[in-house]
Amino acid sequence: MDTIGCIGLGIMGKPMALNLLKAGFQVGVLESSVTASILVEAGATAYPSVAALTTHADVVLTMLPDSPEVETVVLGDEGVLQSITAGKLFIDMSTIAPGVSKVIYEKMQAIGVEALDAPVSGGQVGAENASLSIMVGGNKAAFDRALPIFQALGKNIVWIGPAGAGQTTKACNQMIVGITIQAVAEAFSLASHAGIDLEKMREVLLGGFAQSKILDLHGRRMIDGNFKPGFKMKLHKKDLEIALATSDDLGLTLLGTTLVADLMAQAVTNGNGELDHSALYLFQS
Amino acid sequence: MDTIGCIGLGIMGKPMALNLLKAGFQVGVLESSVTASILVEAGATAYPSVAALTTHADVVLTMLPDSPEVETVVLGDEGVLQSITAGKLFIDMSTIAPGVSKVIYEKMQAIGVEALDAPVSGGQVGAENASLSIMVGGNKAAFDRALPIFQALGKNIVWIGPAGAGQTTKACNQMIVGITIQAVAEAFSLASHAGIDLEKMREVLLGGFAQSKILDLHGRRMIDGNFKPGFKMKLHKKDLEIALATSDDLGLTLLGTTLVADLMAQAVTNGNGELDHSALYLFQS
Question: Distance from A162 to chain B by nearest Cα, in Å?
Answer without folding.
Answer: 9
